[in-house]
Design goal:
The chain is mostly helical and about 140 residues long. It has one domain. The chain has helices at about 1-10, 20-30, 35-45, 45-50, 70, 95, 100-110; strands spanning about 60-65, 80-85.
Length: about 140
Amino acid sequence: MRLWKSFVYHHRRPGETLAGVAGIFPEALLGRELEWWGHRAAFSYALAAGLAGLAQPVLILNPGDDLDVQTRRAAGLAPRSMILEVPGWGHGFLDRQTGEAAALARSFFDAPDAAPFAAVRVPPSADAPRYPARVGSFAP
């Protein structure tokens, strides 16, 4: 029940139905009692060292969810990087806004090396208020 309540809290953004959230919930159950492990591994990664060594451009999306604080840790670490604020997107945005996310990625990948971020624009669905409004990792 704890996992379901947390999942609904973090995935039921404005316009998302409870049935839509329930449709993707089985994926959350795959981690079973180790569901925390992936997040802990990601947040423990030596981010500064990993990003500092990258020569290619890096586009970092900062969706409006509880990963905001962790995402901001990447600011300025890769020499050719940009954090793009996409507050209207959150957990599951690749499932819900697949087309817009793909177009955003395509604009970045197709850009010339001299101006890798020139065509990058926040898609309409990502240009919405953060939900929930709180920033940081938290339980519902």
